[in-house]
Amino acid sequence: MSTTELEGIIEGALRERDLEFSRKGEENFIVQLPGERKLKTTCLLTIGQHGVRVEAFVCRHPDENIAEVHKYLLRRNRRLYGVHYTIDKIGDIYLVGRISAHAVTPDEIDRVLGQVLEAADGDFNQILEIGFAESIRREWKWRVSRGESLANLKAFEHLVDHDGTDDRS
Question: Alpha-carbon distance 42 to 34, whole Å?
Answer without folding.
Answer: 9
